[in-house]
Every structure is written in C-alpha cells, then in structure tokens.
Amino acid sequence: MLTAPADAGLVPERLDMECADAVSRCLARDGAVVLTGQTPSPRALTVAAAFALGEQLRQLFPQRQRSSSEGSPVHLHADSFDIVVDLAGVPTRRRHPDEDYALVQLTRPPLSGGESFVADAYRFVDTLRTADPELWDFLTRTDVDFYGAWGGLRGLPSTPRAGRHVEYTRSGRRIVRRSDGAVPLHRDPDEEHIKVMLARFEERVGALESTLPRFPLEEGDILILDNYRCWHGRDAHTGERTTRILTLLSADAR
Predict the structure, then answer these.
(1) pTM score > 0.90 for this model?
(2) How many structural domains compose the chain?
(3) Sign of torsion, CA 139 143 146 148?
C-alpha cells in the first residue's frame, strides 16, 4: 500500500478581527486561517473576505449553504467548479474554475464529530518529486478534463476543462488542483495510463487525509483558505451541521 508524504498537515491559527494585517500575514504564510467571534450570517462572510484580502478582492460569487444530517465524511478537495447560467439573457458566472480563495462559516454545529482538516498541497506534491516521481510527472505534465466525470450537469459548460493538476498563474503563483471530477481527455492516446495515475493520486490523497490533524470550528467561525494551496475536508458527524460558503477571485487569480 502507498504511504502518504509526511508534514503536509496544517492547523490554522485562530485570530479575531482586531488586526487585519495579522490575518493577512497568516493567510500568506500558512494558506489558511480561522477568523473567530463572527456572527453566523451572509454579511459576515462578505465582510471577512474584505477584511482578509482588502484591495486584492476582484470578484465574489454567490454564497451557497450546505446542510447535512448524520453526515458522511467530506474528503480532501479544493473548491473549484465552472457554472454559467443565463440571467435575463446574459451569461452569468455562479462559480469559476480558478477561484483562488474559499471562506467556510460554520453556522450550525453538529451534535458530535464534523472536525475539519486542512492539507498544505504545496508540501504534499513537493514530496512526490522523490517519493513518487512518476506521479509527480503526471501531475505537472499531463492534461486531464477536470469536470469530465460530471458531464450533463446543468449549467456546466459542455467544452472540456483541460488542464494539469499543478500549474502556475502569469504572476508565478502555483495552483494545485484536487477534484473528483477529473477524467482523461476524450480519446487521449494515454487514457489507460492516465486512469492508473488518477487512481494512484486518489490513493495517495486518501493516505494523506488519514494522517492530518483535526480541529473543531465553533459556531460563527470562518475558515479562510488559499484555494490554490490548501485542500480541506471534514469528518463524519451526528446531528445536523450547516455551513455557508463563499468563493472568490482575487487580483492575482489566474
């Protein structure tokens, strides 16, 4: 069985709104921070985005609420989707495949369980250079269709979203993608090899997830993530658990 590269776990620092500079520094240093003492509300998420990113904010996407009762685990992922709707005759984006920050506010804690976990994907993939060079080569050199497994979903563009798991923006910012929608491109001559690599990547990430430190979110807490750098998830829980999620583009997004 494949083992997970070590030292990719992250427990975000918990900070309040006394100092925006400290929040920004932690986010830049670690890729994640928890903003504490917030009122569970849509307004709080919007204010938190401005507080953390300031003049770097470029575009906010519609907030979405997620509730689960007796919820199963949510495995490691980076928020990314491509949804365009027709709004009064105008094509309008509700999600963006290159959204670079995600904010998750816990608005209703479960009875038990539901602890969060975060992985520093930069550190994870860097260890693959020596731990699994073949997988590293695949992640950095091979195009896949990131939403191919979700074909037919309403609002999802029919054009395949081709890209590599590890890419860079024009300014040199690294993106490490994590999506369970990835499949080989249509009629790719290396289709079978790509399927093997996607399965190996899944196994590696699963092994990593089991080693990550867990941390609780309190009601109103907002987990702010650099979506290019950090993957996140949560454990199973009992009772109902509700979060509100905001994704966005900053000025240095792709």
Answers:
(1) yes
(2) 1
(3) negative
